[in-house]
Amino acid sequence: MTLFVTTGRARRLTRTVSSSSRRRAVKGWLYAAPTTIFVVVLFLIPLILVVRMSVSRWPLLSGNQGFNAPDNYTKVIHNRFFADSIVFTLKYTVLATVLLIGLGLGLALLVQESSRWKNLLRASFLVPSALGLASASLLFYVLYSPLAGPLRGLGVSFLGTPNAALYSTTFLIVWRFAGFYMLLMLVGLQGIPGDVYEAARVDGASRWQTFRRITLPLLRPTLALTTILCVTGSLLAFEQFYILTKGGPDNSTITVVQLIYIVAFQGQNDLGVAAALSVIVLVALVLINILQLRAFRTDER
Amino acid sequence: MIAFQRGSRLRALLTIGVSTAVLALAACGGGGSSPESAVSVGAEGTDDGTNLTLWTRAPLEKQAKLLVAAYNKSHKNQVALTVVPNDDYVAKVGAAAGSSGLPDLFAADIVYVPNWVKQGLFRDISSNVDQLSFKDQINQGHMKAGTMDGKKYVLPFVLDLSMLFWNKDLFKAAGLDPEKAPATLEEYAADAKKIQALGKKDTYGTATGLNCGGCLVFTWFPSVWAAGDQVMNAEGNQANFTNDTSKKIFQTWRDLWSSGAVLPSSKDETGATWTAGFTEGKVGLMFYPATLLSSTTKFDAGVAGIPGPGGGSSTFVGGDGIGVSKDSKKAAQAWNFLNWMMSEDAQVEVLAKDNDVVSRTDLANNKYAAKDPRLVTINQVAGKGQTPVALNFQQAYNAANSPWLTLVRNQVFGDAGKLEPDNQQITSVLSSQ
Question: Tell me, what's a Pfam family for it (chain B) (predicted)?
């Protein structure tokens, strides 16, 4: 869209302003309008509101009480769960990303290689993706329940210790999302031209060499996309922990977004402080995404 | 692929944008929090066919539905009831309060009432409450929680008391007297161990919600009160769990846990299923909500007050208070509902008939209670019970990450030596502004 507009503008500079080019520019803006409206209404306006909220005293139950910057930001940093929640979120993100990218790629290769069971395998890996995350979490809540769960006879406490809770939740996420990442990887794999593989085979490359030297480099754009999706998604993790662990046991599984929810609605009931934390998360996320894009882009070219 | 990456960045931004939007909308339009003018209407209120709205939280759904149905049947005014899941109730009320969208009437967990009154969510109904001939017989715990600066803001909607329930079948099997409740916390622990010693499959001595701050407040505070102590100072800004009574209670439970007489899932119990074990007949005795008496039908259950170390008996007078919201334009009609709710018709013919606790002591010995001596016990203990008052109650005790939960878990499973700092942490949350 920007391409249209700029070429239109460039033409306007060189030639005399013709009515047809103006019409084209108007058309361009019209094409862009739905997206613009969407971004302004759903992103820009809430963003401005949240920034305003983050510099105001704003209790949940009594509304805006006026400007108080930077109190909310100091309160966030002094929150007794602030550091812990960041550490836990990062730990969870690394774990989930490594597992999901690895498994997604592995499953994609498996599905691509095997010809006989291809459709069955693809479908069975993808089925969990059809379930909403909250529904999946509830399903696992019952599965893990020491009182009603079908696995209670094993005598294992799935959510009882900090590590068990982390691994049990990660297992849910892997189950829920592995198929989705497999699908993205499959699209990437199918985008690699067959003649490259043929050439490799003619040159006598082994399976491992083909994977290392051909599949991985040519899959880089897909890997970039999946990593960014996965890292962003994991950093914003909420439902699974909200439903499965509620941040427990002993406050060991509080993610950053959950902390926003806790501050806003569970006790402190302070929207100002919650908004300040949201702004901090937003800035951090934008920075992390820029860094990731940079890293993958330089490698690409 | 580049386009894809842009897309993902946009999506990431949108994800945050949307989540922040939710937060923003939850509070946008905030502003004026000045308390609305006091309600002063005719003694009976007005019954002119107005539609009223009423919100309550899910645990009291049964009682709320009965009350609303009975009112709608006998009045021209019609009340539309909205039941909200327990965990979402504060968020929903908060969002509505910020945007002046509260219903005409809404109930609140009685422990949150002092805070919500202070935030101006309820209208002052003193002049009408004072006209009630039985105003001194209304449950004092609830009335105290809903009173600020001498003005009354709420009436008791549904009382929920914590009581000692025991399974008479299991008592018999363990050679205990099925008609006699343990008189002290020590006896309670001994009985639990005896039932555990039966070695019955999937059957345990006792159970509780050890990862549920609200459950622990509800069931363990009464042991402190029964021994004549207090859990907080009168202002509700200082925790008091380092006294000998509290220490004895924590030691008793630590010992019960390590002896294996506690239902194992109690350790991770966040409150969703904390009563299920007893209701299914798999737990010998437990501190349990009295509102569940009518659903505990699988076996013969005994009911008594909660004992403390060395004896005594008390209860946590919980449940919900109800008031007219600051946003209601129909105060006269709303009062008509409240006035009817406190009447003998509603208290006896709706609540008592359903085996629920009445909120007026003068109606404690009603005809339905007479049929079931357990109800008389509950109604009598209600008078001896307490409702703790603190502005930051939710954050200090009920929240999933509350310092109270940390204290209890350290005392039962962890490093019991942390009592002083854990108690200090509760105090600092209670006293924060």
Answer: SBP_bac_8
Separation of alpha carbons B159 and B60, rounded Å: 9
Q: How far is A17 from chain B (nearest CA, A)?
A: 32
Q: Are B394 and B111 in contact (CB under 8 A)?
A: yes
Cα A216 from Cα A210, distance rounded (Å): 9
pLDDT at position B143 is: 93
In the structure, what pLDDT confidence band is assigned to residue A140 with cuts at 50, 70 and 90? very high
Residue A249 and residue A160 in contact, taking contact as beta carbons nearer than 8 Å: yes
Q: Using CB atoms, pick whichever of A42, A60, A266 lies closest to residue B18.
A: A42
B280-B282-B286-B291 Cα dihedral, nearest 10 degrees = 0
pLDDT of residue B15: 47
CA-nearest of A150, A148, A151, A173 to A241 is A173
ipTM: 0.76
For residues A200 and A206, give the distance between their C-alpha atoms in angstroms, rounded to a whole number: 9
Does the beta carbon of B85 lie under 8 angstroms from any beta carbon of chain A? no
**Pick the residue with more confidence: A17 or A181?**
A181
Q: What single-letter amino acid sits at A58?
A: W
Spell out which residues of chain A touch residue B9, defining contact as CB-CB under 8 Å.
228, 289, 293
B379 closest CA partner among B368, B365, B367: B365
Q: Are residues B17 and A42, on separate chains, in Cβ contact within 8 Å?
A: yes
Q: What is the DSSP letter of A117?
A: S
Domains detected in chain B: 51-160+318-384 (3.40.190.10), 161-316+390-431 (3.40.190.10)
Separation of alpha carbons B118 and A20, rounded Å: 65
* CB < 8 Å to B267, chain A: 157, 160, 249
**Is A8 touching B (CB cutoff 8 A)?**
no
Question: In which residue ranges of chain B is pLDDT below 50?
Answer: 1-35
Q: Mutate which of A41, A60, A65 to test chain B, going by most B C-beta atoms within 10 A? A: A60
Distance from CA of B104 to the nearest CA of A (A): 16
Q: Sorting pLDDT into bands at 50, 70 and 90, what band is A281? A: very high
Amino acid in the structure at residue B25: L
Judged against a pLDDT cut of 50, whether residue A1 lies above it is answered with no
Query: Judging by DSSP bridges, how do beta strands B155-167 and B285-289 pair with one another?
Result: antiparallel
**If pLDDT is split at 50, 70 and 90, which confidence band does A18 have?**
low
Ramachandran quadrant class, B236 (left: phi over 0; alpha: psi -120 to 50; beta: rest): left
Please answer whether residues B384 and B299 qualify as being in contact, where contact means their C-beta atoms are separated by less than 8 angstroms.
no
Is the pTM of the predicted complex or chain greater than 0.90? no
Q: Report d(CA B303, CA A99) in Å as an integer.
A: 52
Residues of A in contact with B118 (CB under 8 A): none
Alpha carbon of A23: minimum distance to chain B alpha carbons (Å)? 27
Q: Which two tokens stand for residue B337?
A: 């509902």
**pLDDT tens readout for residues B133-160:** 999 999 988 999 999 999 999 999 999 8
- The Cα–Cα gap between A162 and A248 comes to 7
The conformation of residue B417, written as its DSSP 8-state character, comes to G
Closest by CA position to B43, among listed B345, B336, B334:
B336
Q: Do A47 and B98 touch (CB under 8 A)?
A: no
